[in-house]
Amino acid sequence: KLTGLPLQPAITPELVQGRVHLKCSYSPRSPEPPVQYRVLWSRLSSAGRREQLRQETTPQPFSHVEVDGANLRLGDTVFCTVTAFRRGTPEQQSLPEDSKGFYAGIKFLPESLEIAEDGKEHVLTVLSTVPIACPGQEDSCRITLQLSTEDLGKRSQAPGPPDIALSACQVDLLPGPCSGSSCAAATVAVTAVTDFAQDGNRRSRLRARPAAPRDVLWRAYTPGDVQVTVRDLPTGNCYSFTDPHIITFDGWRYDSYKIGTFLLCRSDSRPFEVHVRQWDCGGHRSATACNCGVAAR
């Protein structure tokens, strides 16, 4: 009768006496629930295999394991596997059920970005899946993440200067109640740098590193990077040259022989404009003007 018992184990983070723990809960729906559970905690190794952390037998419908920085560290993906049986008849047991993998550490939402060189801001959420704990330092409790970017270039090119810009150089994760898989969150805006170059799509990465954390748990942790793909957009060109011949963005051509200061172009969507100053350069024979100064904002 135990083989079809749905236990549905799930892992949630919580603080126990100021220390970070993971809690595996399971909810049998049998009218006569079994009184014993065998809970196996494991984590994913770097080779992608499950490594056993600990095992216990308990009558409680939950089990805890501490993220202590030694056996279980930030950056680990953790599972709990639960088997139910009745006391005195351990041979009559349910099929073991796995929880979903729980990643303990920093996550980014979305996990990757594809943006264009159009000046638009894209919001990236940085969140901690575990509680922020600072025993004895509650007044100034926070985890500060230092943000940096690196341009990976195209596969055939060496890395160059950053291709993305951030709205902040650091964000603070403050302690608070956990909701779902988020125990603390902050946001940063990411914008593609408009470089006016036909350089194809480029890849960058965004890094977040804990800045001088007091907690040893965070001191040994390096969060994963976020990959940002910047989609190249064609660049518009306009010209004003010699006496002066003008070619507009959409290809119209005309001449301007006036003397004075003029608005050459202005954007309706962003604070950008170009002024040009034209002086008489034709002498007495002809009325001709030439560019002698330019100002851009």
Mean of the pLDDT scores?
A: 87
Assembly status? single chain
Strand content: over 45%
Tertiary shape: elongated
Counting structural domains, the number is 3
Order of helices and strands: EEEEEEEEEEEEEEEEEHEEEEEEE
| Rounded Rg | 31 Å
CATH class of the largest domain: Mainly Beta
Q: Roughly how many Å apart are the termini?
A: 77 Å
Give start-end ranges of low-pLDDT stretches.
none
CATH architecture of the largest domain: Sandwich
Largest sheet: 6 strands, antiparallel
Q: What percent of residues adopt helix (DSSP H or I)?
A: under 10%
**How many DSSP helices?**
1
Give a quick precis of the structure.
This is VWDE protein. By secondary structure, the protein is an all-beta fold.
